[in-house]
From TrEMBL:
It comes from Leptothoe kymatousa TAU-MAC 1615. It holds the Pfam family Pentapeptide. The keyword Transmembrane helix applies. This is Pentapeptide repeat-containing protein. SUPFAM superfamilies: Pentapeptide repeat-like (SSF141571).
Amino acid sequence: MKAAEVLRLYEAGRRDFKGVSLRGQSFKGKDLSGADFSEADIRSTNFTNANLTEVNFSEAKAGLQRRWAAGLVVASLLLYGVLCFSTGALYIYISFLSPINLLALIASVAIIFLFLRKGIGLSTLALTMAPTVFLIALSSRVGAELFGNLFLSIFLVFATFSTTFSFMVVCAFAVSFAIVETASMAMLTVLTVTAVAIGIGIVLALVTTSEPDSIFRLYSSLVGVIATVFFVRVSAYIARRALKGDIRDSWIRSIALALSATGGTSFRGATLTDADFSQSLLKSTDFRRAVLMRTRWRDAEKLDRIRPGESYLDNPKIRELVITGNDQGQSYDHLLNLEGINLQGANLVKADFTGSTLKTGTLQGATLTNTYFIGADLNRVNLQGVDLSNAQLNQTQLDQADLTGATLTGACIEDWNVNSSTKLADITCDYVYLKSNQQERRPSQGTFQPGEFTALFQQAVNTVDLIFKDGIDWQAFFQSFQALRTQYAEQDLSIQAIEKKKDGAFVVRLEVPEDADKPAIESSAKELYETKLALMEQRYRAELNAKDGEIVAYREQSANLMKITELLAARPPMSETPKYDLRNAQFSGGFAETVQGDQIGGTINNQSAETPSLAEAAAEIQALLKPLEASNPTATEAEQTAYLSAMILPTKRERFIGALKSAGGAAIEEVPYGPVLKALVEGWHKPNG
């Protein structure tokens, strides 16, 4: 079917093109998303830069058209034969010159063996200099007349080695290409060229038997034939080793695959999101720069004969994994190019993905018991129905991941990163561990009841997470948060929780209204914090006349001095009852706080909006400062006022302002926390208060 006809039918609404022949057609840059090309013949079809989202290519046949493949294989065989014939003739010629020249052949064999151990890639210099060395060797008779046969023999060693290596490398390319197209053809090549080489020796032997030194020439011919056969075998071995992915010969493999993909099926730059290549034949196909998001490769054939570019398909272990979906106990750690990988239904028991990036991929229905995802990036990964029993999810990133219906019994979730967009519905879980080595079991006894795990660990939807990777200056934060609440006065922003991570980072979780513009609030919060931080640093510099290192030290001292990390930020991740949970806290009217250990939280009972007396206002201030004083008894007045400014909503300030106005200056000084209240109100009246 012609490309124009396919496009016309596609525009008309047809999506079923199962089994059609599209050989040699071009769909470059076209949109064919959702089409069904299963069992189609797409050899030499051009899909460059096309949109092939959710296209079905299962059981399709890609690669070179038959006439192209046949022509290129024949060309490679002819090149191979000519090179082997030339090599054989060279050996016989060298042997004819002098018996001592046989040492050149023996030395060449020894040197080539040394190079093969390190990889042919290290001998590129020998390949490029071969013609020059060979010409020098042929003209070395002048040197031989001056310095004797030893000089000639040395040059012959280099000439034989360089020329042999040149022939052998090109032969390896030829055989590599033949193997890409058909493995049986490669064996036929070896047998054919071996026969040719033997024929050379027999012919030359018969021609020279009438000469006086015919026995020597026959012997020399046999040596040349044997050497030719040896190097034919070596070139075939190098070709096979390269195509198996041996890193020593990766450049040979890359060139052979590039040549074989010339004129083949092209998906270069195409969007293959959620496309399906199951059971398809893919040799001589170009996937460079293609978008491979959740692309399915199960049981695909000749996937090792494609041109993968820099995608995960360039890794032999990953190719095998996506084809079979069964690779228990293997290590895939610290692989950063697995983004979008499709491992749906895979059996990955005890596999190790520590530090690897699998974001936007799918592991739906996979068996992941005892699997290691320590520090792995699983953001936006489909984990529906996976079995993560006893898995290690320490510091795993799960932002927007979907774990609906997953099994998590026995998993370690120390410092895992889940948020309001992480889906934890219908989780099957008897218990989990909050620390490595099966420490901090939750629940400590018994098992979770249905729905309890989700209720405990699912983050509230209406939150904004502010992440401070390099620590936090709390005074700058409190001031910026106050400015943020002023900016979004109608949004009623509040701090829900603060977490301190192991690496010294902090996560401040803000609770926001359902209809709030979360990205805008997050951006504003970060911008205000950076502005306040810069102002604080200017103040530090002015006060301390310090250098940069001293300013950093001062900031660290300030953070430690306030002890906020112990007060609000040091909760273990995902404990049964979240520490420092400030959701729904208003810090106005009366104050009824439930304190368990170092936990802060509870419900603030709103009292009447009547103006309290100075004593009542001071009592409320004392109640609000109680947690701060418990963790930092030496907190300064400035630190207390900064803390109170962050905790008291702007809409609730009038009560305290009224209490201050109703009292005289002497009365203010006499009541506990009167000076703090006065400084607090004065700060509110400032332009940036």
